[in-house]
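Hi F.,

I've been meaning to write this up properly since the lab meeting, where we talked about keeping a consistent format for the predictions we share between groups. The idea is simple: the sequence comes first, exactly as it goes in, then the structure tokens exactly as they come out, then a line or two of notes. No screenshots and no reformatting. I'm using this chain as the first example so we have something concrete to point to.
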Amino acid sequence: MAQTGRRDFGPETTTDEVLEGIDLSGRTALVTGASGGLGAETARALASRGARVILAARDREKLDAVAESIRRATAAEVETVALELGSLAGIRAAAGRVLERHQALHVLVNNAGVMACPESRTEDGFELQFGVNHLGHFLLTGLLAPALLRGGSARIVCVSSRGHQQSPVRWDDLFFEKEPYDKWAAYGQSKTANVLHAVELERRLGGRGVHAFAVHPGVIPTDLSRHMEREDFEHIRRRSGGQLRLKTVAQGAATSVYAATAPELEGRGGVYLEDCHVAEVNDDPESREGVRSYALDPAAAARLWELSEELVGQRLPV
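Output, unedited:
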């Protein structure tokens, strides 16, 4: 495939531009949070290049509507699976249904998430943002790992956020049981965990052909912001230095699609991507660019893996 122009990808690059010239025929991709927003666009884009797509989300009505719209727009095979990331039992059931239908997977995009929500707990008692954004995807990915390994050459995309800069993992108080709840610290911790998950996945699976990437999609007006109030948007604006650059959904999903398909990323897993390129490590507290070093720390990634297995109550076949 010709590489001309791919070095020029940036914040305005769209999913279709990322996929120009790429053939995904014969490959199967599962996208979580695919009932709208970035997940729906990620699935549509992959399907447009020939991939079979499995849409996973909790809202069956919205999921079916997205599936039908993709079928009308492409010639790809489209399936759906109900997935409740706030329930360990629900995740195990969804993974079981996927594995019954598919011997191999080639792309897993862990896109679903919640942001800055009021304090609440998952069905299993975990703080909601850590439970859904990290632990839910941790268990799902581990259960689907055998199918990804059978894919021969597969990729896992962990959708994180620049919000990871708001907090490392709070090892001594994961669920805010000792200190008052801070929804932004909770969100930041969960997004740091997403990056660390990719780092440890790469260590465990990279040598066997499955590569993992963390991505920052950008700021996109989607249903993810449903819990946010005016002061929350001001919080984001202040953290961005007053320059809040919004992306379209097609631009926001582009980095996930890039991570899932870019030939130039082959063998380069365990990194954090933004604006369709590998981000630099940046620990300047005044800067919002790049990735914090604590999110790429291999020791922290290994520690989080062990802790996550304890929390979900299962040793994963990875």
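Notes:
The first helix runs from residue 15 to 18.
The chain has a mean pLDDT of 93.

If this format works for you, I'll send the rest the same way.

G.
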